[in-house]
Design a protein that fits this description.
mainly beta; 120 residues
Length: 120
């Protein structure tokens, strides 16, 4: 029922910037939080940034000062602005939304992912 669609990935040189978008099918306030994650083949999917229903944001340490998560409530869209990209940032980036079920447990929904490739 929850649909998330990512866009904005691509190929950039080290030091460049990209802005990823995560469009939600409904109101983002239906979600407990929306997060950006990334995954490299052979590694666990890791949290990049998170924004809560109340608008609070959190970042992985390596992203602080370089990445910014934000939202446009009217567009039901969450963004990830990525500056100062490094080769190590190369990964598939996924949007995640969490919603509580009838028992109050959180359920995760994922977008299809968008590839970000940073070249030296």
């Amino acid at each position: 029922q929850v649909q998330l669609v990512e866009s904005g990935g691509g190929l950039v040189q080290a030091g460049g910037s990209l802005r990823l978008s995560c469009a939600t099918a409904g109101s983002i306030f239906e979600l407990e939080h929306v997060g950006w994650y990334r995954q490299v083949l052979g590694k666990e999917r890791e949290l990049v940034a998170l924004i809560s229903r109340g608008g609070q944001s959190d970042y992985a340490d390596s992203m602080k000062g370089r990445f910014t998560i934000s939202r446009d409530i009217a567009k039901n869209t969450v963004y990830l602005q990525m500056n100062g990209l490094k080769v190590e940032d190369t990964a598939v980036y996924y949007c995640n939304g969490a919603i509580r079920n009838v028992r109050g447990d959180l359920s995760d929904y994922w977008g299809q992912g968008t590839q970000v490739t940073v070249s030296s």
